[in-house]
Write a structure and sequence with these properties.
Blueprint (H helix, E strand, L loop, with lengths): L1 H39 L1 E5 L14 E5 L9 H5 L7 E5 L8 H13 L13 E8 L4 E5 L2 E5 L7 E2 L33 E5 L6 E3 L9 H4 L7 E10 L5 E2 L1
Antiparallel strand pairs: 1-2, 2-10, 3-4, 3-10, 4-9, 5-6, 5-8, 6-7, 10-11
Length: 243
């Protein structure tokens, strides 16, 4: 009798270990798959502010695409997943400077919160912005609208003419901002002298031009911190469409 109980006890323990191992392997599979999808293909993000109004609003849910095809159609397409006028995800975290255990822990936190929470949230974060200029472009601004001369171009065009999809911006009026806070310098001014982007520089801005948390305050950014391009808004249902 004792031997029978011992046998069944051992069998039960073995079964429990197998179940635990199976659960762990299934979790590991989904964790790795999820992170690979987010890193190399697609990810879903919720807009948490109104800096991209009038096109995007707080609460909109966006699918971002982060895969760079290995084939070459032209120089611009082969180098970047985005173009002028693209809405992109900018990674301003100090992620690469963080220790490996913290980075692994951050991956777990982001996995269980569907990318909504990061342990590095106090060290910068992700921003949704619009690309205005690519490396080598000449850029200037007048009345909060940008003009861009492409690196190999012979004349400047407006930001809207260079975008593949139409969009609108929210242009602030000087009277909307307290005179005590207003001055004529960037980022508060609606004008900017011509600048030439370097070989590893892009320029990104908010569609709501009264919000200056973009290249007007950061300066030009490296394309390497642009992690993904917005392709589809799927929520709210009445605004479903490609971006």
């Amino acid at each position: 009798m004792f031997e029978k109980k011992t046998y069944y006890s051992y069998a039960a323990q073995k079964h429990q270990r197998h179940r635990a191992l199976k659960f762990f392997l299934v979790f590991l599979f989904f964790y790795i798959t999820y992170n690979c999808l987010c890193a190399f293909l697609i990810s879903v993000w919720v807009v948490d502010n109104n800096t991209m109004q009038p096109g995007l609003n707080r609460g909109d849910r966006i699918i971002f695409y982060s895969f760079t095809p290995p084939w070459n159609f032209n120089k611009e397409d082969s180098q970047y997943i985005f173009k002028r006028g693209s809405i992109v995800l900018v990674d301003k975290r100090h992620y690469k400077d963080s220790k490996l255990p913290l980075r692994l822990a951050d991956g777990l936190v982001r996995f269980f919160t569907a990318q909504k929470v990061s342990i590095f949230s106090g060290e910068g974060q992700y921003y949704i912005k619009r690309v205005i200029g690519l490396p080598g472009d000449e850029i200037s601004m007048s009345n909060y609208g940008f003009r861009v001369k492409e690196a190999q171009g012979s004349f400047a065009l407006t930001e809207y003419e260079l975008s593949q999809r139409p969009y609108h911006t929210s242009i602030p009026q000087t009277g909307d901002i307290s005179g005590e806070l207003w001055d004529d310098s960037i980022p508060f001014s609606g004008s900017m002298d011509t600048i030439i982007l370097g070989p590893d520089e892009c320029y990104v801005v908010s569609d709501d031009r009264s919000n200056t948390n973009d290249s007007r305050t950061w300066g030009a950014i490296s394309p390497s911190i642009i992690k993904a391009r917005a392709v589809l808004r799927f929520w709210p249902p009445n605004k479903i469409g490609f971006l």
